[in-house]
Structure formats: C-alpha cells, structure tokens
Amino acid sequence: MLKKTLLMALSMTVLAVQAQQKYEIGNPNDEEHYGYLKDYKALKEYIDYEKYPNFKLGVGTTVNDYLQKGLVYKLTNANFTETVAGNAMKQASCVSNNGTMNFTTVKNYVNAATAAGLNVYGHTLAWHSQ
Asked: Helix, strand or coil for residue 95?
C-alpha cells in the first residue's frame, strides 16, 4: 500500500512539473501574442445598465495589493463596479488576540475604492475558521 501511495505521489509530482513547463507565461504588452486584447472593452462596459440598473459586477481583491495602486488597483477600477476585501474585513484581520481593534487598513481600502467610484461589499462579520 505504501509503495502504491508513493508511486502515485511521484506520478502526480512529475505531471505537475510537466504542466508547469508547458504553461505559457506572457506579457499583455507583447503585441505579437496579446495585441488582440485591445479589441475588447472593459468588463463593466458589456453590461446594459439601462436595462439592469442595479447589476453589480464585483471582484474580490487582496486589500494590500489594491492599496498599492498598482496593477490590481488599475484592473479592479477599470473592469468592475464593486469590490470585496479578500480577508481584511474579517474579524481575525481587524481584532487582535487581546481584543483591540484596528480598522485603519479597512478604512483606507473603503476610502480608496469609493474614491475610484466602486461600491464596497462588506463580505462577512465572522468566518468559520477564524
């Protein structure tokens, strides 16, 4: 039984390595391979807001990545109308072990997102594993 388990684990590892070697990593600025992407509008522009005025197109973001105002910030603002914090609004991120609360990161996130025209969805008050 142990030999079968080890053989299966080794096989899965070899397959995973081969899959990674064949995985194409590209740069969207590469005109030859990705120039066609410029033919598409931002995702939120495909929604008929006259017909569906309350439709929200949202994305979960890692708050620290969003607050850096780099690629995550730009893609989120360009393509979506709503965002939700991946983990930063959960209790374990805002309340320390001694019970003190710190909402600075959450406030910065909400302020940055709303200033960019996004709605912010509150996500959850408690998470089963925290």
From this structure: strand
Alpha-helical (H) ranges within 28-118 are 31-34, 63-67, 71-79, 91-94, 104-115
pTM of the model: 0.70
pLDDT digits (tens, 9 = 90+) for 8-26: 666 666 555 555 555 555 5
Distance CA 60, CA 82 (A): 9
Residue identified by tokens 């390595």 is 17
CB atoms within 10 A of CB 109: 21
Helices (H), the chain: 2-22, 31-34, 63-67, 71-79, 91-94, 104-115
Whether the Cβ atoms of residue 87 and residue 94 lie closer than 8 Å to each other: no
- Report residues of the chain scoring pLDDT below 50: none
Length of the chain: 130
Domain boundaries, the chain: 2-121
Q: DSSP label at 130?
A: -
CATH superfamily of 2-121: Glycosidases (3.20.20.80)
